[in-house]
Amino acid sequence: MSMNILRPSIVLLFTLVLRPAVAQAEGDVARGEKLFARCSACHSTDGTRKIGPTLAGVVGRTAATIGNARFSKALIESEIIWTEETLEEYLSEPKKLVPGTTMVTRIPDLQDRKDVISYLKTLY
């Protein structure tokens, strides 16, 4: 069999095999919004201050820099910029990334974290 005949088949096979992995890596915004309900006891998405800071515009922001919120000394000194990666690590184990943080709630499931982060990315 000619290699030219195999190439399109190989490309199609890789596309079909890899596509679910790529889609899963992104996270589900709608599911993330539903999961965020457990975060909404402390965090708003509209700029309103609750126990914790608003998470509107959190992605790309330096930790502990939004006004009208109280932050732990540890978070202030962390100088973390909230990217998908740092949010994933923080939501996995806040006290591991920032020893001394006051945030105690974690999201142990990786897909749940990805979904919540995908939702957070939509907030401005």
From TrEMBL:
UniProt signal peptide: 1-23
Pfam families on file: Cytochrom_C
Q: PROSITE patterns, from UniProt?
A: CYTC
Against PANTHER family, the record matches this protein to: CYTOCHROME C (PTHR11961)
Q: What is this protein called?
A: C-type cytochrome
Tell me where in this chain the Cytochrome c domain is found. Answer: 27-124
Keywords (alphabetical) are: Electron transport, Heme, Iron, Metal-binding, Plasmid, Signal, Transport
